[in-house]
Amino acid sequence: MPLRRCPQIALLVDTATDWGRRMIRGIGRYAQQQGGWDIWLEQRCQHAPGRLPAGWRGEGVIARVADRAMGRYLADVPGVVVNVSSARIPGVEFPTVTADLQAAARLAAGHLLDQGFRNFGYFAPLGISYVDLHYHSFIEHLAEVGLKCDLFPAYRGKSPNATWYRRQENLRLWLQDLPKPAAVVTWTSDRGREVLYACRAAGLLVPEQVAVMGGDEDSLLCETCNPPLSGVALTSERIGYEAAALLDRLLRGEPGPSDPILIEPTRVVVRQSTDTLAINDPDLARAIAYIRVHAATPIRVDDVLREIAVSRSWLERRFQETLGRSPAEEIRRAHLERARQLLAETDLPVPQVATASGFASREYLAYAFKQATGLTPREFRQRVRGR
């Protein structure tokens, strides 16, 4: 019996980033579940066409189509194309699976608001469709609670060292002028590193005076920053899995979606660059810190009151004024954040996750998690891992 011929699939996804490598894992997982694809991978693609081997005749391509030249090139290659870029390029239309950048911006803003910040900055190269979408979504979310955001627009494209140093100087002056404490969001982890450099040059403490967050989450870049950089996990492994599933459907002759399939990010990866509370009231700051330090413990509001020694009415009023929620809601939120982290980063069974995140039972964790996210703990873990 002749061997079954596997589909020939090309991946034009840059492997220099954690985003790309995770996406390829998701594609590979889907391919294995279907019995295997013969995958050709171009490891260095980022811009400009000409990536496929001469004479390639495969069935499909999954590509990051980030510019018009790549779009024109892929329009002429054999096979079906699925795009995984968030770029919106006039005249370039491929079935698309990509990150929900509006949801990512909401996550970033929500995390920084939860830390008590009321002064904000944004550092990114505007004029790029997906960066503009993220920036405007971020400032719109802040506007909902009556807050504004100062912008430092980055230089687009490659620049000589002189331009980089000049931008560092301008960035340093901008950071010095921001009212403190301030939180700065950057489009990428790379830009976040630039802000950290400039803070150090300006003598600004991170995160006490300036908290810094990347709009994405490249673990290698983030963990080697000084201090380590927080970021939004864009769930690229699941994007890869869903892109592969869409390609498979298209290969079977099913119609493609008219709109991009948007994959919501699941969480903020909190590191030292935002690990602070920008709250001037010492008693309130101690209360919030106590709750978050004890996220793995089944504490109650009475435990907070014993620790801080203030009245319940004062505590309720100050929590509502500052965070927009009650102390009990903050305790539940801290437990849920701890559960999210354990589900995403460990293989602990759900009952152990419940115990380790302060819930009395797996049933209560499942109920609270479903109420907050619309997902069961198991579904959340599967989404994070691209299954």
Summarize the structure.
With 387 residues, this protein is of the alpha/beta class.
Q: What does this protein structure show overall?
A:
It contains 15 helices and 12 strands. By secondary structure, it is of the alpha/beta class. Strand 9, helix 7 and strand 10 form a beta-alpha-beta unit. Mean pLDDT is 89; it is low at 46-50.
Poorly predicted residue ranges:
46-50
Q: Considering the protein shown, what is the CATH homologous superfamily of the largest domain?
A: Response regulator
Strands side by side in the biggest sheet: 7-6-8-9-10-12
Architecture (CATH level 2) name of the largest domain: 3-Layer(aba) Sandwich
Q: Report, as a whole number of angstroms, the end-to-end distance.
A: 33 Å
From the 3D structure, determine the CATH topology of the largest domain: Rossmann fold
Structural class designation: alpha/beta
The helix/strand order is EHEEHEEHEHEHEHEHEHEEHHHHHHH
Number of helices: 15
Reported for the largest beta sheet, the result is: 6 strands, mixed
- Overall number of strands: 12
DSSP strand (E) fraction?
A: 5-15%
Radius of gyration: 23 Å
The residue fraction in helices comes out at: 40-55%
Which whole number gives the mean pLDDT? Answer: 89
The rough form would be described as globular
Q: How many independent structural domains?
A: 3
Broad CATH class of the largest domain: Alpha Beta
